[in-house]
Amino acid sequence: MSNGPDNPKYTLRLYVSGHLGTGQRAADNVSRLCVDALGVAAFTLEVIDVRERPELAERDKVLATPTLIRQSPPPPRRVIGDFNDAFAVLSALGIAPATPASVGGARQ
Amino acid sequence: MNHVLHDVPRLETGLSGLDAITRGGLPQARSTLVTGTAGTGKTVLAVQFLAQGISTFRQNGVFVTCEEAPEDIRRNSSGLGFDISAWEKEGRWRFVDASPDPDQPARVTGRYDLEGLLARVEHACGLVKASRVSVDSIGSLLGRLDDGDVMRLELHRVFAHLKSLGVTVVITAERRLENGPVARYGVEEFVADNVMVLRNNHEHRSRRRTMEILKMRGADHMAGEWPFAISPGRGLQVVPHEARESGRKVSNQRVTIGQPQLDEMMGGGVYRGSTTLVSGAPGTGKTLLVSHFAGAGSAPQERCLLVAFEEGREQLVRNASGWGLDFEDLESRGRLCIHCSHPDAAGPEQQLIDIRNLLEEFRPTRLVVDGLTAMENVAGEQGKYDFMMGITAMIRHRDLACLLTSSTPALLGGQSITECRASTLADAIILLRYAEVCGAIARSITVLKVRGSDHDSSLRELKIDDGGMHIGQAFSNVSGVLSGSITVVTDDELARTQGVLDELRGAATA
Questions:
Q1: What is the pLDDT of residues A35-50, one digit of tens each?
Q2: Distance separating alpha carbons of residues B189 and B174, to the nearest angstrom
Q3: How far is CA B317 from the centre of its chain?
Q4: Nearest to B106 among A17, A51, A78 (CB)
Q5: Cβ–Cβ under 8 Å, residues B395 and B367
Q6: Model ipTM over 0.85
Q7: B376 labelled catalytic
């Protein structure tokens, strides 16, 4: 699977919790990974703080934070963790990196 | 550590018997871990903890389900008599669904916390203004996001947070082996102040469910395993041993056993709040005595609950009518309630629960349990002993006069060992025996003990006819009442025997 122009746009939702600043760090990590792997135009990322919107966490049955959900394209997929391991995160999301080199820096 | 001077505040659960063994309920605003192997009733307890809160105390609840889907819990609970959907509509019950979603498995790729779950539980608690939270089961959660250390830390945080919300929490966790670690992952017990173990043992042909409080930090509770039962419409009920917890005075009011001559032998009838054990071989008149005792329920202010383990209703009614007692009439006038149940169908705990429920509904003044031997055959000696303990406690608590019957295996036999053990629980013991009188068989009756009273301990002849039971003269020259076959020797025969002996002696010395 390559990141060609015909590929659908990714809709991602990230649940974080505000405490200890880990939420912001997770959001930054995901954002950077996706920009590197897909390009800015190929995804949208919605960041939700479970403390502020618990009803959304309930709707999506979120247990752990951070949780990243691939809303589209189907099927939905979920990744839990702090997204430091770029390769693991992208493969769990079913996103192939544009080129191995583009995420090579994050994977050591 | 502070020394605990005062017992921690309690939340009365409303679960039958549980508040007694915890001496007042679960510690308030704390977590209690309920562990047990599969099928021990953990989910039932978790559901009922909330259900009783809502129905008895108007305390709302949040149910966090980590294993079954909410729909399964709703359906299974309706069988226990709880309409969860209705409570959800009224805003008194709320689910937090943490059950696994097979369509969306989550991949763990790094560090995480349980803030998502915590935020949802807190949100749900706020919506229904919850006082109670059940989490069923924590093991399922741990199994999915496994990383023991992270989980342990996170659970600490979750339960500390729930504590700060002031809610009282029941958490269930599965044990893999009965004798293994308290909980499956070996971490759960550290996160709860209080730990209870549910067990489901098989003894003989019946199940024996028990509940034990392993620890309750800073809180007094009763030690030991407590039998409980789970029944449709009523859920989980712990067998009450009220007598152990109350220092009630023993009643000194006496009532008739239903046969005036036997009352006389017992020194004036039976005491309320006491148990009388009737032991007899088949055909010696146990069922007749039961009928007399139950028939005495027709007296003003008397009502009798008759629990029969061996005979069916029709048989009991027919037997009684043969002795001039109309049981159906007594029932229609609310003087008698007949409950036939074979112990095979349910264990001793279930029988005790059923009897207690009947006692509460029918409110009798006297109780007969006919056929302890059937209980022993199914549940073993321990089961029978436990059953008698339970009965004794219930009737003391309610000041009922109680008659229990037990069969002896041998026609001419005395007491068996098991009867001896059960006899320590009975306040009075009546033996019905066949006696051999000059080569013929006669029925006999003797009152072996009456606690707190004088009694006539002679062995008397017992006659049974259409009018019921008649007690005759005392036999003299009796031997073997307790040890084995009873032999009665008449004076004439003694004289004849003496003559024979004298002759023999004379012949020997000649």
A1: 888 888 888 889 999 9
A2: 11
A3: 27
A4: A78
A5: yes
A6: no
A7: no
